[in-house]
Amino acid sequence: MKLLVFITLMLAAALTDTLGQDVTIFPKGEQAPNVNHVGVVWRSQLVQSDSVFTFGISEVAYEPGARLNWHSHPAGQVLLITNGTGYYQEKGKPKLTVRKGDIVICQPGVEHWHGATPLSGLTYIATTPAQKGPTIWLQKVSDEEYGIKE
Q1: Burial class (CB in 10 A: 0-12, 13-18, 19+), 4
Q2: Tell me: the pLDDT tens digits for 2-52?
Q3: For 101-108, what is the mean pLDDT?
Q4: pLDDT value at position 14?
Q5: By C-alpha distance, which of 46, 76, 59, 73 is closest to 123?
Q6: Which Gene3D superfamilies does the protein's record reference (predicted)?
Q7: Rounded average pLDDT over 54-73
Q8: Which residues in 35-67 are b (16+ Cβ under 10 Å) and which e?
């Protein structure tokens, strides 16, 4: 009985040490060239679309203040928010705050943007069907749209 208690306590201590550390499942990826966004954005292509998998899957991480330009996806996109706090906004609608655990469904052809808040980074897994074409990139999100006051 004492041995069982000892083993249980040792396992609990080991798990506590492990759970207290940051664990990375996927590599951080490559820093995306600053072409269709503001700030620092990291992207890791997890699954490339092809004739078998007609969708791509990426992990995207934003440093605080980073955001994508307005854009749309001809076949839509699903974002699974895995860490941090960010924003999502569709053209003509109010900006929404998204957090770890949220799921965002970007409807096909709808102009929108997403990114981190000024004080928090944001990470998500994006799955994007590719059969109707690539992302259509539009203008930068203005400071006013993002929420920066002068």
Answers
A1: exposed
A2: 443 333 334 344 434 444 455 545 555 666 656 788 899 988 888 888 888
A3: 95
A4: 43
A5: 59
A6: Jelly Rolls
A7: 93
A8: eebbebbbbeeeeebeeeeebbbbbbbbbbbbb
Q: Please state, in angstroms and rounded to a whole number, the distance separating the CA atoms of residues 69 and 138.
A: 6
For the chain, the domains span 24-143
- Asked if 29 and 44 count as a contact pair (C-beta separation under 8 A), the reply is yes
Q: Which fold has domain 24-143?
A: Jelly Rolls (2.60.120)
State the Cα–Cα distance between residues 142 and 137, nearest whole angstrom.
15
> What type of residue sits at position 148?
I
Would you state the structure tokens that stand for residue 83, as one six-digit string?
């860490």
Is residue 114 pLDDT above 60, yes or no? Answer: yes
Token pair listed for 5: 């208690």
Question: Quick one: which of 125, 123, 118, 65 has its CA closest to 99?
Answer: 123
